[in-house]
Specification:
Blueprint (H helix, E strand, L loop, with lengths): L9 H14 L1 H27 L3 H17 L1 H16 L6 H29 L1 H8 L6 H21 L3 H8 L3 H12 L3 H26 L5 H31 L12
Helix pairs in contact: 1-11, 2-3, 2-4, 2-11, 4-5, 4-8, 4-11, 5-7, 5-8, 5-9, 6-7, 10-11
Length: 262
């Protein structure tokens, strides 16, 4: 396949992601809702416990949400990427197939994420060193250490913006998935980051607005907030998948894609 003559505009990428979610709303928002709605309902009593000034009650009520977020939500998150990968190719999929893919790709996804976390820790060494040696350092050394300690982890994160899509959709694993992710965004880091940031801001405003307007209502408020966050997650994940296929197309190695503008 020949490379595209140009990258899709920001508007085209945003529209393609919206079209994917609109055409497959039940599946995509449903998978996202399986993450956010239970968490919102489990965390809702936590607000009242904190307001009542009982930190131990708040901690006890946070345990189920923490377990769900750690053990269940990652499977669903990977399943959402897998479903979007199939739909973007024009293939059929359903909840069962997506969940099976989520289970199958969870360990490679977790391992790749762990590698990136380790790189972020290494990149944070200047900041850690400055914090440990703060009283003995001069002002310029402190400033340089803080600047490096903040900039280097950001560089690492930006290199692997599309890591999840590479692992789940391409089936890459370990260090190879890191190399592939860095290759895909090379020369387009700011573009990719800007598009994903814009999508996050849009969905963040949606979720925040619903929470402010309805979050005070017992149970129903948490439900509406969870649903709004689910729509946001479905859209931002779709945005990353569209961007992933677009970056592949720019390098001439893309598969046929069915999303708008392909």
């Amino acid at each position: 396949m020949e490379p595209h003559a140009r990258a899709r505009s920001v508007g085209e990428v945003l529209d393609a992601a919206l079209d994917l979610v609109r055409r497959h709303a039940l599946l995509l928002i449903g998978l996202a809702a399986m993450i956010h709605v239970p968490l919102a309902l489990m965390l809702s009593p936590l607000d009242s416990a904190q307001a009542g000034g009982d930190p131990f009650a708040a901690l006890r009520r946070a345990v189920p949400a923490l377990l769900y977020a750690t053990l269940v939500a990652p499977i669903l998150g990977v399943a959402l990427i897998a479903a979007l990968g199939e739909l973007a190719r024009g293939q059929r999929t359903d909840f069962g197939a997506a969940l099976r893919s989520g289970l199958a790709r969870l360990l490679p996804f977790a391992w790749a994420s762990t590698l990136v976390f380790g790189l972020v820790l290494i990149a944070s060494t200047p900041l850690i060193a400055v914090a440990m040696l703060w009283p003995t350092l001069g002002g310029l050394v402190r400033a340089a250490g803080i600047a490096a300690g903040l900039a280097l982890p950001l560089v690492v994160v930006l290199r692997y913006l599309l890591l999840g899509q590479v692992v789940v959709i391409e089936g890459a694993t370990g260090v190879a998935s890191l190399r592939r992710s860095a290759e895909l965004v090379r020369g387009s880091v700011l573009r990719c980051f800007g598009i994903l940031l814009l999508g996050g801001l849009i969905t963040g405003l949606l979720g925040g607005g619903v929470r402010m307007a309805l979050g005070w209502i017992p149970v129903a408020g948490a439900l509406f907030t969870g649903l709004a966050q689910s729509v946001g997650l479905a859209y931002t994940t779709a945005l990353a998948v569209v961007l992933y296929f677009d970056q592949r197309a720019q390098r001439g190695d893309a598969e046929p894609a069915a999303f708008s503008g392909a």
